[in-house]
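Notebook p. 47: complex prediction with S-adenosylmethionine.
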Amino acid sequence: MPILRLISDLLGVVILLGVIYFLGRPIVHGAIYYPTSSRGVERMMRLAAVRPGERVIDFGSGDGRLLIAAARAGATAVGYEINPVLVRRSRRAIEAAGVADRATVRWESMWRADLSQYDVIFVYAFPYVMSDLRKKCFREMRPEARLISNAFRIPDWEPAVEEEKALRYQLPAEVRAVSGGKPGRNAAGATG
Ligand SMILES: C[S@@+](CC[C@H](N)C(=O)[O-])C[C@H]1O[C@@H](n2cnc3c(N)ncnc32)[C@H](O)[C@@H]1O
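Predicted complex, structure tokens below:
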């Protein structure tokens, strides 16, 4: 029947648009899902030197592996993840790892996160978002916080430490000075 055919065609179009939306959004806004290897997680954790009680964010948290590692080190870890399938998977992994009291995942764009709340920022994102990330960090990052990037450099910001493919960034002294030591007060120093 033509009406049934029309409904099924429309349904097909809606499903296709949904797939394009869920696959396309991460590409436009940050990165596709490609998890950090186990050795990469160890390396990033080593560079971050996470201490118990610190607050950690994974900027695009995928299956939650960095959140679990940070929570096991005694930190409170928050992941921002745009892909609902990964949000569900990572929440399950966190439960299974027994760290649900210290690790949570928000189904939300990482660009909505307030970086002044965190001591450690993990990121594994496309190079084309790194410039915007630097501007956000220069505005919001706590003076003593560190950002650990897997694989990709941030333009116009020299890493403090490099280990194989991981890089540790800390705020340049001139940006830190503007904040007067107060988290999230770097706005005037965001020369971006
Ligand atoms: C390369 S994966 C890294 C996952 C994880 N951090 C790791 O190291 O294993 C990047 C993740 O960022 C997510 N992502 C991309 N854009 C995002 C955005 N705007 N907000 C939140 N998550 C985003 C993707 O869905 C993907 O899971």
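Notes: The chain has a mean pLDDT of 89. Strands lie at 55-59, 76-81, 103-107, 120-123, 146-150, 161-163, 166-170.
Next step: compare against the earlier run before touching the bench.
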